[in-house]
Fold these 2 entries.
Entry 1:
Amino acid sequence: MSDKIILTGDRPTGRLHIGHYVGSLRNRVVLQNSGEFKKVFIMIADAQALTDNFKNPEKVRQNIIEVALDYLSVGIDPAKATILIQSQIPQLTELTFYYADLVTVARLQRNPTVKSEIQMRGFNADIPVGFFTYPISQTADITAFKATDVPVGEDQEPMLEQAREIVRSFNRIYSPDKPVLIEPKIDLPSNQACLRLPGTDGKAKMSKSLGNCIYLSDDSKSVWEKVRNMYTDPQHLQVSDPGHVEGNTVFTYLDAFVMEDSFAKYWPEFSSMDELKAAYEHGGIGDMKCKKFLYSVLEETLTPIRARRHEYEKDIAGVYEILKKGTDEAREVAQKTVDEVKAAMKINYFDDDAMVREQQAKYNNQ
Ligand code: TRP
């Protein structure tokens, strides 16, 4: 068994959608089942969600169960992965406070994610401190569990970069001989289409506020409605016209979801995406046919997810039990790291008999 440890997570601000699925969730299940990892931690980052939803705690509170149900329904298995709730692990706050010493305001302002969110929300010096410093708290999330691998979407790269910097600073200052903290690496999906799945309207990103998401919990009927109305190629007016696949959302989704046997099952006229794309570009393939194919492919993935979700929905108390068990276990792991961190920082006074003896000797000699 390797020493590799996974930590990843999501903010509970809404149900998870198929962008989350291809960008990260699907990969997590593969990693969880690979047997390659000593531990897999999956965090519901409610405290981080509060950094920009602090006026709306009810939203965060209601979405914890949604995200937990989404996790379980895609196949995250509590016997193999530890699901935890961030706010219930005070050790993370403790680490955040010490790591904050190692980061400058200028560095946070240069963090591309923070920078763009500041711009988007029009913040100046009125930015809430908790929001501004969440990269530090995310570093605590990752390092508390000694994570080596963080499977997330590419939008999280700046957070990982910041985490690695904090780890290096900490180890250099406090534990140069035997590093206490581990530098994490990001695990991105290998398929380009999965890196950032656009919204059904063709806009850059799926987002709840744009109403362009297909949720893992959507029923078949709404999935079909969303696929039917999907953005394709605005110049492809007649079936016989040549079509464009570049920037055509239906094709981007197909690239992310088509499996080896999808053509044989649902569109035997073709045998690969390359063939279908060539035919579409040549002309003669209608958008509706492509959409029906996409719908079948999506449904094959979503049907078992939906079924598992309905099972778990029958026992919400049981789901909270899973979360509590995971959180309790995670808290113990985080406490061990806090102990090591405090020892390295020499702020473990009550566990440090040698220090007491040394100091006693100093006074005896006076
Ligand atoms: N920032 C992540 C997101 O917005 C959620 C998150 C919080 C996270 N803590 C984490 C992801 C630690 C990976 C590791 O989706």
Entry 2:
Amino acid sequence: MIKELEFILSPLSCLKGFGEKTIEIYKKLLSPKRLLDGNKELKIIDLLYHKPEKILFRKEVFDLTSVQDGELITVKVKVDNYEAPSHRSQPHRIRCFNDTGFITIIYFKTFPDFIPKNFVEGGWVVISGKAERFNNELQITHPDYVNNYDIPKFEQIYPLTTGLSNRVLRRSIQIALSKLSNLPEWLDNNFLFQHQWKSWKDSLLAMHNAKNDNELSNNSPYIERLAFDELLANQIALGLMREKLKNKSDKEILINKNKNLKEYFLNKLPFELTNDQTNVINEIENDIYSNKRMMRLLQGDVGSGKTVVAFLSMLPFIENKKQVAFMVPTSILATQHYEWIKNLCDNNSNINVAILTGKIKGKKREKILNDLKDGKIDILVGTHAIFQDKVEFNNLSYVIIDEQHRFGVSQRLTLIEKGNSVDTLIMTATPIPRTLSLTIYGDMDVSSIKEKPKNRKQIITSSLNKEKFGDLINHISAKLKDGEKIYWICPLIEEAENLPATPLFQRYEEFQKFFKKEEIGFIHGKLTEDEKDKIMEDFGNINGKVKILIATTVIEVGIDVPDATIIIIESPERFGLSQMHQLRGRVGRGSKQSYCVLFYEKPTQNLIKRMNILKDSCDGFFIAEEDLKLRGSGEVLGLKQSGFSEYLIADLSSHYNLLIEASKMARHIVKNKEYLNKNEIKILLEMFGYNDCLNEAILN
Ligand code: ADP
Ligand code: MG
């Protein structure tokens, strides 16, 4: 490890107060973004890159008469008297005062000796909390601070998790910051000056000591600087990888050009391929049989039939006894793809298909890992669990990544690295504007599926005012009687402050008045993977009981239930156009007429415009472009809503320009070995965990 990075790359457990239990709590908070499998070690840098979400200002006051209702104050007062609760439901009341007036401190629950210890009659006490006025009496209920030495004037509020208070988190970050030394600067002085950016360390310090929300916004110079570092490191790593892939020509050529398996499956499929599907498979096969490594992006709108293309393109490898990995973003989707492939492969074809997700554990997992290593498994379908260190392939030669925008660059690359010289197919339903794809993927070959299977009827999209709730329920009931299935999409799980939308649980309660309870199911991101799989099975199976599935956008990616014919999207103002198009793509997958209902409350002009785009067009590419015009590029990529962003600070919906700049700079650096050999650049890359690609680039 580079000497300068020793501190920030040390395990978090090196800091005082970080025992095993504490680390587990921090993992819940910090790991989703930073750590791929949640098992790796948390480092000090993970703590340092945890960004505050807002700032609270605690006003230091003396004059109690000037305090407004609801104001957050810190004040020094004298204890007058303590009134113990006369009844269990009564609070403890402590009356305090200073020269300007009185204030009452209220506790509903405290530790036994807390009050006598802190509030001694006649003694001084410093308290901080939200002041309220009741009948002109000033009071603070459960102050945030009592007699602490370090009551902050500006308090940074961080995203938290159960078992961790803001005070403890904030203090641990401050402790880490106090031991931090600056790193040698990797950015050019002029460049820093142009942007009015400070050094890396000063920017981190400024972020954690921000005095107002503005300083935390995406265009604050500190946040921009930190975001740029991340983007630059990422772009350099990507550039190095790209170089490496280009230079590698040791691909093993597939000798057996037999197409028996392909013939077999083409006959077995219950449908004919569309022309586009056939063409795309040919394009892929050309690459596969050549001696050049394939890097291909397959774009195809929702429902255009990418899965079958993926499957057919695996067959040349299987004919040659090589292994294939099919990576998808969720375990529901993994299960679905796995079952579909397994069904198709039945016993006659001799193809061994396996599934690996994070929840497959113990003996079962061991067996899969062993079989994989021994080459007994031909096709491995799975989530990112596929690319943990322990997963070893025998001769991985082909990697397919579905719904790519859900994975980070480093995740994709790690999987590609597992094979010696693998061919890669990346599939996406979110069309990526050319400029963006160039920056993000570099030069990739692109295949597109533009036509939909012939048996499809256009999905009829309409908008409906929420006043017509009763009509909609009647309509749905009739459809349910005909054996059709329905998705009902809610933007929220639970009631949220300030948001007028109807949450999922409320609909679930309400629907029990109209439908049989066992026919209603719900699914959302807070369920465990097992729970999600179970409900999708109940909804997806022909014999499954659930007929109407209330869902958040967790069902947005890839799920295929051909009997589902109606999707209701509640509060369309809360979703992006591309996202709604993806959601709509959950229906219209069989031969029956399907419907999408945009169920709105307030028809603002903007909403009407957006709803019209969806009503008039079923073309994902067109919709994405319109979306791009109406919102930023980051949103179109689905990066923002997906919550799967691989960046800790950078946010492509507002740092797109920084990405372009970082990309330019990275190209320049990658081309020049003298830059790459610079200690500063090494530090930057190692800091974000990209050191492996650098080492290889320099050695090559
Ligand atoms: P996506 O491109 O969104 O991933 P899928 O691969 O899930 O689409 O395919 C959607 C549905 O269309 C599936 O039920 C699949 O079996 C079916 N399908 C795929 N290709 C064809 C075709 N050529 N004709 C009819 N149905 C097809
Ligand atoms: Mg799909």
